[in-house]
Design brief:
Strand order of the largest sheet: 1-3-5-4
Shape: globular
Strand content: 15-25%
Distance between the termini: 52 Å
Number of strands: 18
Number of helices: 14
Radius of gyration: 25 Å
Helix content: 25-40%
Amino acid sequence: MTDKNTEHSRLLDVHRHSNYAEVNEFVDAFWKLHLAPHFPEPTAGRKPKARPKAQFKVLFLDLYVAWLEDPELCISIARGDKNFDVDSRYNKLHISKIIKKVSDALLEQGFIDQKIGTEIRDRVTRIWPLEPLIDYFKAAAFSEFLIDIHSDKECIVLTNKVINFDADEKEIKSTVECEYEDKKVPFDIAGTREDLRSYNALLRETQIDIGSEQSPLVTREYFNRKQKRWETRRISLRHDNKFVRRIFYRKKWNLGGRYHGGWWQQIPSELRKDILINDQHTVEVDYSGFHVSIAYGLEGLQPPQDPYTLSVLVEPLTPKQQRPDVKLLVLTAINAKDRESAYSAFRDEKNREQRHLPADQKIKYTNRLLEQLLDQFVEENRAIEHYICADKGVELMAIDGRITTRIIDHFTRRNIPILTVHDSYVIQSEHEAALMKQMEYATEVEIGDFYYRKKQEKVSPFMLATFAQMDRQINVLDGYTAISNSIVRTEGYKKRHEKFIRYKKEYHTEG
């Protein structure tokens, strides 16, 4: 086996798909030459829902997309039979254990290499293409935009947390997707699913990219909680990493319901300011301190302007340090079941933030210090005391999920792409005023007629026009020019944009 960093991997996407003739010809040619003899058509007996050739197509295209995304990326593929439920709603292409035989056939002929995993230790097998297959990939003459995620992939997901144990009796926590029956869902799931499919269809036809990025691959540091170590995560900005799902938690339809997916949720927040939608300038608007504000609204009270700025300064914190610490602690406490778990989660996050600071600049967040901060917040916000350390976060997420649903549906019906990061929204700046209006409407319907603070840090035409109404000395035209000149478009981005425009003209121009 070659020397390969198999830690750099992602799961096989069982919904990798293309309906374009160019792609099918590319797949068929390889199949007929190299794999068809290994999988003769059955003459009798029950035929599988997805034949070997169809399963080969999924694996082959996913290997190809992974190689395009990052030549060093491996594909993780589980080999246990329990991982292939052909009747699952989360397996629309009916991928079965046959795909293991397809993988083995590619391995035997020297097209891929692999590292066998130990699944009892939660380690699945990794595979990656070798030079003979890479040479075939290089010969592909079709646009990368012709390969995407199957439109029937389930976008309404019910999940649950489970705990397993490995061979050493070490606890392994994971999230699993749960089966459900549409008729037992307590809302119009058919309509909800269709609305989300329409949204995903709009995203597929939209170029969403970061103008300042030369490469469509962003790297960021993240903390691997399972391994308890810092690792580098690579995030693809490619068009096939835009699929959005609505996920409900703890196997309950009244918990969660937030929107997950889309590379814009995975990148560092400072990069979102450079997102371009169809090559146009964007703004990001979000609710300020939203879960605290929702809690106040549910109590029939107007949320305070800034609940995180306390009237008392707790030593050794400075005012500049205390406000963000209070904010993090309160949001952590809203999601926690008790104070002990809230303090532990807060310390984990602060230790990560402080890891590069000199020892004499690091703050030691003792239970006593955190208790003082949380007690003072409670003292000044008695109306929502019962939301603290009471595991209320998933209930509040259900509300912000419904608010986001209203906002997404509003703009999708108008064919206007909008990106969401829970209670934050990225949209072309020309639609900023409409977004602000819709945010106000959605909160009024879901919570009540209260004012919820919104913020955005990026100067926009709407913001300039608003300021100009208050100060006639502001030159709006100069401001618009400055905004236009502030947009960064690297040469790499320009090439990606040109490729997308060619694809749109060739495949999505009517007439």
